[in-house]
Amino acid sequence: MPPRLGAVRALRAPGLTHPNAHLPSSRWIPLKRGLATSIEHTNAASLSDDQKERVVILGSGWGGYTLSRRLSPKTFSPIVVSPRSYFVFTPLLTDAASGSLDFSSIVEPVRDPGAKVDFIQAAARAVDLKKKTILCEATVVKSGVTESPRTHEDERETDDGPEATMQKHRQWEKGETFEVPYDKLVIAVGAVSRTFGTPGVRENAMFFKDIGDAKRVKRRVRECFELAVLPTTMPDMKKWLLHFAIVGAGPTGTELAASLRDFIYKDMMVLYPALQGLPKISLYDVAPKVLSMFDESLSRYAMKTMRSEGINIKTSHHVKGLRWGPPGASPPYDMDPKRCLTLTTEEEGEVGTGMCVWATGNAMTKFIRQSFNDVKDFPENSIYKMDSSSTPGQSWQF
Q1: pLDDT at 112 over 50
Q2: Is 142 helix (H, G, I), strand (E, B) or coil?
Q3: Where exactly are the structural domains of the chain?
Q4: Which of 49, 109, 259, 290 has the largest CB neighbor count within 10 A?
């Protein structure tokens, strides 16, 4: 059995711990003055509910979830507003996608009676800085809230859209809107995947930011293997279906490639021995090396290790488009999961692939762009620019 890629998997940031991990008494959460307080170590006297500052936290990721657990309930009344009702321990997302861990083991519910934190499952749509209110839309029954957006960020109606073929929300998915007042507002809504406007990527690629994304990746790998063993599948289509492409050789893409390789050779090949020698994993990046943000020696070691384990390293490659259908096919290119996709690069032309995961970086969410990029008047003690030369939307803080 091929060994696990422990060397590559060990590239996670040192000291990264779960936000619920116990903090030594000498450590403080690095927040802005006025919010930097720890539940375990505050000496402030308890205030009545109407005296406590109402802190609304948008987002249940690393920033929002951690802050909600560390604010002193004696001083603050924290409220988390998020489309998803859980926190995801993202460093283990690749392990869950590859089957090494159960998905339930890498999530923590936001709603917890012992945390003394209120929770509203909704998405923020707008902020009124003068009234100190947030316009929210309930997302309790909305589909796709656990997945990355499936349409272009300038075209989609919300930041939590459904699948690519559903350009418009079904009527029943539109949640009720309401306002949430705040004394202090913390925005920790994260980011969306950056596609650089590459044709077909937003509609056809898979992303890797949340539980829903990881489940889709795992499901698609299994689909490709099942499609490949069908007696009606032609040899070329079989080869294309079992080619798994990952675009973006940063920490996420690199570790996903390693985990996917482990999943295929440890689990899938045991179940599909007839497909021995056909599966292929390719890691694409426009940079000349993987993990370009790390030390040169680490990058070389990662590339050497992955190549020795059969992962194709496609650095200095420029992706030009992604569509459904095999290489050389004529339009229309309608979505058909029973067939492969075609990834087009400047260097190789058209390449068939059963799945393309896009992990190239982050971009600003539509909510942030619309709410703050055009703000000219910042209320006192609410939001301010960090220096006089900053323009609205570029450099501001709470």
Answers
A1: yes
A2: coil
A3: 6-192+363-397, 201-358
A4: 290
Dump strand ranges (E) for 354-393: 355-358, 362-363, 384-385
Assigned token pair, 151? 């349409």
Phi, psi dihedrals of residue 172, rounded to the nearest 5°: -70, -15
Give the E-state strand segments of 4-116 in sequence order.
53-58, 76-82, 86-88, 107-109
Q: What is the CATH number of domain 201-358?
A: 3.50.50.100
Question: Please, is 396 exposed, middle or buried when counting C-beta atoms within 10 Å of its C-beta (0-12, 13-18, 19+)?
Answer: middle
d(CA 128, CA 143): 27
Q: Maximum CA pair distance of the chain? A: 73
Between CA 277 and CA 273 the distance in angstroms is 9
Q: What pLDDT, in 10s, does the model give residues 263-296?
A: 999 999 999 999 999 999 999 999 999 999 999 9
* Backbone φ, ψ for residue 265 (5° rounding): -85, -25
Given a contact cutoff of 8 angstroms between Cβ atoms, the answer to whether 247 and 360 are in contact is: yes
Written as one string, the DSSP assignment of 112-125 is -GGGT-EEEEEEEE
What pLDDT, on a 0 to 100 scale, did the predictor assign at position 14? 41
Q: Which helix (H) or strand (E) holds 282?
A: strand 280-284
Q: Which of left, alpha, beta for 157 (phi over 0: left; psi -120 to 50: alpha)?
A: alpha
* Rounded Cα–Cα distance for residues 99 and 39 (Å): 36
Fold type of domain 6-192+363-397? FAD/NAD(P)-binding domain (3.50.50)
Radius of gyration, CA atoms only, the chain: 23
Provide the whole-model pTM. 0.79
